[in-house]
Amino acid sequence: MNYNYITKEEFSVAYFQFPKFLLKYPISQNGKVVYMLLYDRARLSQMNNWLDENGRIYVIYPITELIKHTWKCRSSIKSALKELDEAGLLVRKSGGFSKPNHLYIKIPAEESYQKDRNSTPLENGRSYKLS
Questions:
Q1: What is the C-alpha separation between 97 and 86, in angstroms, rounded?
Q2: CB contact set of 130 (below 8 Å; sequence gap of 6+)
Q3: CB under 8 Å to 109, separation ≥6 — which residues?
Q4: 46 phi and psi, to 5 degrees?
Q5: Secondary structure in 3-state letters for the chain
Q6: 51, 93 contact by CB (below 8 A)
Q7: At what angle do helices 63-70 and 74-87 cross, to 10 degrees?
Q8: What are phi and psi of 19, to 5 degrees?
Q9: What is the pTM of this model?
Q10: What is the reported pLDDT for 41?
Q11: Residue stretches of the chain with pLDDT short of 50
């Protein structure tokens, strides 16, 4: 495999956003990686307007896919999901008979940001207001 140095002309590579607040949570590394994957999927669901009847974004991410994407075993993924449940960062709801579960990714209230036209721009060019 060949590698390139990062140069001024290099644009970027595909990446996941790792929420900084996770560094404060006493959860396992597996839990943090699973949350990061779920959060990324939630952003995609948000763009595609996957909303429930309460206007909340939900995610469908089968355990088999999480296993494939993390290279972890089923019990590790189930433990990570349980850990996220217990930490209040995830809510799982049954999608109904023979339907996949809906996963709701939660963000601590003090860490959530909402887009606002009247807010101060950040370094990355986006504008956010602490809610």
A1: 25
A2: 113
A3: 131
A4: -65, -45
A5: CCCCCCCCCCCCCCCCCCCHHHHHCCCCHHHHHHHHHHHHHHHHHHHCCCECCCCCECECCCHHHHHHHHCCCHHHHHHHHHHHHHHCCEEEECCCCCCCCEEEECCCHHHCEEECCCCCECCCCCEEEEC
A6: no
A7: 110
A8: -60, 130
A9: 0.78
A10: 95
A11: 117, 119-131
Beta carbons of 81 and 92 less than 8 angstroms apart: yes
- The strand pairing partners of 127, in sequence order, are 121
How far from the centroid of its chain's Cα atoms is residue 15's Cα? 12
Q: What is the CA radius of gyration of the chain?
A: 17
How high is the pLDDT of residue 95? 78
Q: Which residue has the tokens 């972890």?
A: 72
Take residue 18 and report the two structure tokens written for it. Answer: 């790792």
Q: What is the pLDDT of residue 110?
A: 78
- Residue 129 is predicted with a pLDDT of 45
β pairing state of 102-105 and 113-115? unpaired
